[in-house]
Amino acid sequence: MSDISTQTTIQKTCQSCQNNFIITSEDIDFYHKIQVPFPTFCPECRMIRRMAHYPNFFTNLYKRKCNATGKNLISIFPTTCPFPIYSKEYWWSDNWDPQQYAQDYDFEKPFFEQFKNLLYRVPQPHNRKIDSVNCNFCCVISNSYNCYLSIGNYLTNCYYLYGGYTSSQCLNSSIVLNSEICYECFNIEKCYQLFFSSYCYECINSYFLLNCRNCADCFGCINLRNKQYYIFNKRYKKDEYFREVSRILDSFGNFGNLELFYDKIRRWEKTQIHRYARVINSQDVSGDNIQNSKNCHYCFDVFDVENCKFVTLSGLKLNNSYDLYDSGMKCELIYDSIGLSKDSYNSKFNILSWGLIDSEYNVISYNCSNCFGCVGLRNKSY
Question: What is the pTM of this model?
Fold first, then answer.
């Protein structure tokens, strides 16, 4: 151990793609700290593996029955899935006990063979909806009202929205934060009545914007700051602006004309300067779409993250963690997990759980500590 710890870097060959990758001295320190062996897959293949195991909560819904009550359900799991499915209300009730599926560990058999057997016997909830009303076709949503086929937190009257937070009346969009009345937008924050736009902050009453901040009444603009009444980055008088925009919108007529205009926008974008990465209020970071973060590398779509590496779609005070997807919310020392959140600490190889402390290889477990290889546990230790 002492010889390894003195090395600055280690070069390894990925067992999946056969490409070489580097484990840095910083990586070595982290792996020693959380007591795990060095990875055998390169960072790209590890990311692919995590994403491949993440359930498709958005595009596939199935009509089926609860295996406990016979109640009709709209579920993320088909009838062919190997484990029982309970309605979310029944799953969280005291009408059943996950410990009834307990099994002894056999040291003569591989761990993952036994873990798979447990995973296929323990019931799972039919969706991940929490404290939401009239969101029957939303399978991963919390504290929301009147939403349809959306994923996020604190949403109201949103439809086909992925990754929304504290937003209302937003449609056909992805990664929308603190915004209202937005359509066909991607990665926007604090916007109002914004349409067909991406990477915008505090923009209102505008169309087809890219990388704009604090803009109002703008159309087809790129890289603008604190502007109003602009079309394709050209300044107009107020009356001229609304007259020209009205003429453009009337010309759409049908979806085909809108597609032609999209092509015009794309050609226009190719003539403009683009940022190498979207990094906001962050230092010593690498990746893209990073906000309010520090010392984070190979990270994408993260905010409020510190001392992390190989992390995607995560944030909210995540610290000292590696190889995560869709995780965070005051978590620290987390490794190689998917959907792990809410005050978890020193935990690794977990899926769709929260509040785990000193735990490994857990699936859909909540508020547990010192648990290993468990499925469906709630408020348990050891």
Answer: 0.86
